[in-house]
Amino acid sequence: MTDKTIIRFEGVKQQYDRSTVLNRVSFEIERGKFYTLLGPSGCGKTTILRLIAGFIQPTEGNIYFNGKVINNVPADKRQVNTVFQDYALFPHLNVFENVAFGLRIKKLKNAVIADKVKEALRFVNLEGYEDREITEMSGGQRQRVAIARAIVNEPEVLLLDEPLSALDLKLRTEMQYELRELQRRLGITFVFVTHDQEEALAMSDEIFVLNEGDIQQSGTPTDIYDEPINRFVADFIGESNIVPGRMIADFRAEFAGKQFDCVDQGFSPNEPVEIMIRPEDLEITEPEQGNLEIKVDSQLFRGVHYEISGYDKAGNEWLVHSTKKAVVGSSIGLRFDPEAIHVMRFGETEEEFDKRLEAYSDPAQAGAAGDGR
Ligand SMILES: Nc1ncnc2c1ncn2[C@@H]1O[C@H](COP(=O)(O)OP(=O)(O)OP(=O)(O)O)[C@@H](O)[C@H]1O
């Protein structure tokens, strides 16, 4: 734990009846950053938010806030506010009263409330909308009222549970920029929940990828995109080619019936692995000039690139994103760099994975691990 840590989960388990929704999850959240909990429906994202907010208590483990255990601190005593998916605004109150609601409960003076509400509305670009009825506001504007109502309490952490999912694509993209910008201006910690990987990649400083009650991987968007820990993360974050293979030795992998140089090490000789290559890292060449040859099966124009798929001689399917066209039924070559080959070990924990990656970037450790070439 560092002095930047604001929230820490230590072995937190959550059970409803007999089903375990979180399996002894441990992680840290630092002050002033934009975090995203990303994962498919039902993986436990909202449960983590509810635990941070104090709407539920963990079955096991501890939750720390600024270094103190808060398992039994009631929700209204936590320095945390939540923006809900459906905004949960009061339809019978106007914009001002919706934002002022929490402050009235705290019995602040009217002049103080007026100042704070004005400031919060300014932050979300809704100055002058104080007297509007909620029913007269658009989806995007309601969203901003909900955010103003949360930030008016000056929380240390803002929790956002799929706040953009009700908006259409264009507005959603606009709000992504706005939220990111708002977080920078406010300088407080945001914990944002989404099942949309593009949204997570675009907005976050740090992403936690969840599946079935476990954190599969945590890291920056580029870490997670470039070095996914396993098939689940690789598949969930972007499109990927994943084929079976084995590590012959350090820096030498075999897949699709051939051997290739790669940048991975620290595996047992002949260890079975999964090989991942992103579609945009494959370059189309003449059939005999590539590292692999595939027979083109289909081609779709996607606006910026062509999406080409085909099969190699070993029967693996490959997806290619390229600005070059290919002819369905013809053979093409695929060229890729050793750095484009990502080797994934079966059943590796995040700790082991991080250690292995660190060894690549630290020549002293890499040497100690033995260069098997
Ligand atoms: N009060 C409850 N009682 C019983 N089961 C619950 C309760 N709340 C959530 N669950 C279950 O816990 C699991 C995780 O739910 P959670 O809402 O945390 O998932 P999520 O990742 O946020 O999903 P979504 O994206 O669909 O909102 C689900 O299987 C859900 O059915």
From TrEMBL:
InterPro entries per record: AAA+_ATPase, ABC_SmlMolc_Importer, ABC_transporter-like_ATP-bd, ABC_transporter-like_CS, Mo/tungstate-bd_C_term_dom, P-loop_NTPase, PotA-like, PotA_ATP-bd
Any one Gene Ontology molecular-function term assigned to this protein's record: ATP binding
GO CC annotations, alphabetized: ATP-binding cassette (ABC) transporter complex
Domain of life the protein comes from: Bacteria
One Pfam family per UniProt: TOBE_2
Assembly and interaction partners: The complex is composed of two ATP-binding proteins (PotA), two transmembrane proteins (PotB and PotC) and a solute-binding protein (PotD).
Task of the protein: Part of the ABC transporter complex PotABCD involved in spermidine/putrescine import. Responsible for energy coupling to the transport system.
PANTHER family assigned to the protein according to its UniProt record, in alphabetical order: SPERMIDINE/PUTRESCINE IMPORT ATP-BINDING PROTEIN POTA, SPERMIDINE_PUTRESCINE IMPORT ATP-BINDING PROTEIN POTA
Protein family according to the UniProt entry: Belongs to the ABC transporter superfamily. Spermidine/putrescine importer (TC 3.A.1.11.1) family.
Name of this chain's protein: Spermidine/putrescine import ATP-binding protein PotA
